[in-house]
Amino acid sequence: MIAFVYKRNVITIFMSIELMLNAVNLAFVTFARAHNQVDGLVFVFFVIVVAAAEAAVGLAVVIMLSQNRQSLSIERINHLKL
Amino acid sequence: MSVPFLLFFVCGVLAVTGALLLIWAKEPIHSALSLVLVMVSLAVLYLLLGAPFIAAIQIIVYAGAIMVLFVFVIMLLNAGAEEHTDFSRLAKYIGLPLGVILIFWAAYWLLRSPAGGGGVTGGLIAGPDSTQRLSKQLFQQFLFPFEATSILILIAILGALVLARKQE
Amino acid sequence: MEFISQHPVLVASIIKIAVLLVLLMTALAYLTWLERKVIAHIQSRWGPYYVGAHGLLQPLADGLKFLFKEDIAPPVTDRLLYTLAPFIAFALALTAIALIPFGPPSVAFLHGQAVFSVADVGVSLLMVFAITSMGVYGVALAGWSSNSKYPLMGGLRSSAQMISYEVALTMSVVGVVLVAGTLNFNEIIGGQSGPFWHWNIFGIHQGGFPQIIGFLCYLTAAIAETNRVPFDLPEAETELVAGFHTEYSSFKFAMFFMAEYANMITVSCLATILFFGGWLSPFPDSWTWQEFLPGAGLVLLGIYCAYDTVTEMRGMARIQLAVVTLLCFGAGLICLLPAVAAVILGPFWFVTKILIILFFYIWMRGTLPRFRYDQLMSFGWKLLLPVSLANLVVTAAWLAFGWGKHG
C-alpha cells in the first residue's frame, strides 16, 4: 500500500496492487484453515484468476500509455485526454 | 522448534523482505523479481497451511505466468531506474501516519479474533484442502462464478489484443 | 541416534537429496556422452572414442574444460541478474526431480521413510508443472541482462515458445488425470499396476480411453518446452549465434547446459510415470524370475566388456575397459542377491523406460530439421492445443458415459 502511494513508475504501482491481492489471499487461506472450511480456498482461486485477467488488460493499457507518452512516470501520464 | 515451524518462520521473513525490496528497489526489474520471491514464499506458506492445490495454482498462474508477463513488459518498455521526485506534502504528513495506524489496527483485530494467532504450530496436518473437496465446491455450489470467470478471461484476452494492436 | 528417531523426515530427506544429487550429476554427464554417441552413429561415424575407452571419460574431460575455461565477463546491464539467471535455471531443473518417485513407496528405511522419492505431496503432478513453468525466468533474464541483441531476441523467443507449449503440455496430461482420478504420482502409478496392457497409454484398465494421442501431444509439447530439436530455433547455431546463452562462458554456460539436460530427464520421467506405468514392470507380477533381470543384464554387459578388453589394442583403454568389466560383474552379482534384487527392480524398470524415451529424444535430434519460429508458434497454438483439448473432451466423455467399464 505504501508503494502504491509513493512510487512513480506505473509498472511498480501495478506490482504493488498484485502484492496487496496476494496479502488478501494469504488471509483467506489462513481463515479457511482455521475454520476448516473449503469456501475460503474457492474464493482464493477466483481472486487469482481475476488478478490474472486484470494484470493482462492493465499491462496492455500500460504499454499503450507508454507508447503515447514516451514516459513511464506517473506525473507525466496525468492528463485524461489522449 | 520443529521443522514446519522453522520453515513457516523463514517463509514469513522472506515474504516480508520481498515486499520491502519491492518498495525500495531502484530498478523495476528488481521489484518484479522480489515480487516473484514473495509469491513463491507465499506458496510455501499455503503448503504449510494445508492447501497444496492452491499453492501449486499460485505458482503456475501467479509466479509462472502473470509475473512473466510483467517481466516481458518491463523488458519491452525498457523501463529504467526511477526518477527521484519529492513526495507531495499531503502524502507525507497525512498518508504515512494513517498507513501506520491502519497496520496496527488490522493487526490488533486479527490477533483478537478467536481463530488468529496459534494456527501454524499444527504443522502439516491435512487442512481443509483436498483437491476433491475444493473441486466439488467449485463445480457444484460455485458453478456460475466459475463459468463467469472463464468469460471474464475471454474478455480480458480480447481487450488486451485490441489494445496492443498497432494504431494505424 | 535419538536425533534420527526424532526427525526421521529431515535426516532421510538429507540422505536422499545427497544420493540423488550425485546420481543425477553422473546421469547428466553420461547423458551428454550417450547423445554424442547416438547422433554420431546416426550420422555414420563414431562419436567420442579416444578420450577414455569408447569415449567414456569424455564427460569428465568436458567438465574439467568448463571448470577451467576463462570466465569472460561482458559489459552487462545488470551484473546481479546476469549471474543469477543460470543458477535459477539449474536449481529449478533439479528441484523438479525431487518430486519423482523412482520406486515403490513400500520400500522404506529409517522409521518408515519411503526410499525412492524425496518428497510426496498430494498434488505432485501440479507441483512439477509449477516448477517447470518457473523455468521461463532463467531464459528471459539471461537474454535480457546480456547487453546484446542476439541474446535478447533469443531469450524472448525462447521464453515465448516455452510459455506457449506449457499450455499444450498441461492440457495433454489432463486426460491421464481424468483416467487415474488423482494428481498424486504414487496413486497414478498404483492405478496402472499389472501387466503392460494396464498402462495408461492403453488406458483400458480403469475404464478410460487409450491415451495415445495424449502421449504424442505430451511428447511434442515436452520437446518444445525443453528447447530441443526440432524446436530449438532460439538456440540454434546457424540462426542466432547461440541464442540466449551467447554471452555466457565456462561455468555459467555449463549450468544452462546441464539445466537443459535435467529438464529433459524430468520430462521423460513424467512421461513414463503418466503413460507407461513408472516403476512397474511390463510383465505380470507372478513371473518372479524377473527379479533377476537387472543382475543378469549387468552380468551380460560385463561379458561384453570383457570381450572388448581382450580385443582392445591400446594399453590405457584396455586397463579402463578391464576396470569397467570388473565393475559390471560386481554390480551384476550384487543385484543377483535376492535381498537386493527385490528392491532394485522398481528403479531398474524406471530407468529402462526413461532411457528408451531419452533415446527417442536423441534420435529426433539426429534426424529432423528444425521449425522456423512462426511455424513453431502456429503449430503450438493452432494444432497442438486444439488436439490436446479434443483429447481431453473425448476422454471426459468416455469416462462420463461409462463406455469403457466392463461390469
Give the domain tally of chain A: 1
Coarse shape of chain A:
elongated
Instruction: Spell the H/E element sequence of chain C.
Output: HHHHEEHHHHHHHHHH
Summing up helix and strand content along with how strands pair, one would put the structural category of chain A as mainly alpha
Number of strand segments of chain C: 2
The residue-averaged pLDDT of chain C reads: 78
Strand content of chain A: under 5%
- Residue share in helix of chain C: 55-70%
The global form of chain C is: globular
CATH architecture identity of chain A: Orthogonal Bundle
| Helical content band of chain A | over 70%
Short description:
The complex is a heterotrimer of chains A (82), B (168) and C (407). Chain A has 82 residues and is mainly α.
Question: What does the model show?
Answer:
- The complex is a heterotrimer of chains A (82), B (168) and C (407).
- Chain A is mainly α and 82 residues long.
- Chain A has three helices and no strands.
- Chain A is 76% helix and 0% strand.
- The longest helix of chain A is centred in the middle third of the chain and has 31 residues, at 39-69.
- The mean pLDDT of chain A is 71.
- Chain B has 168 residues and is mostly helical.
- Chain B folds into two domains: 1-81, Four Helix Bundle (Hemerythrin (Met), subunit A); 130-168.
- The N and C termini of chain B lie far apart (64 Å).
- Chain C is built from 14 helices and two strands, in the order ααααββαααααααααα.
- The longest helix of chain C has 35 residues, at 8-42.
- The model of chain C has no long low-confidence stretch (mean pLDDT 78).
- The B-C interface holds B 3, 27, 29-30, 33, 36, 40, 43, 47, 52-53, 55-57, 59-60, 63-65, 68, 71-72, 75, 130-131 and C 7, 9-10, 78, 80-81, 121-123, 126-127, 129-131, 133-134, 136-137, 140-141, 144, 152, 156, 159, 163, 166, 183.
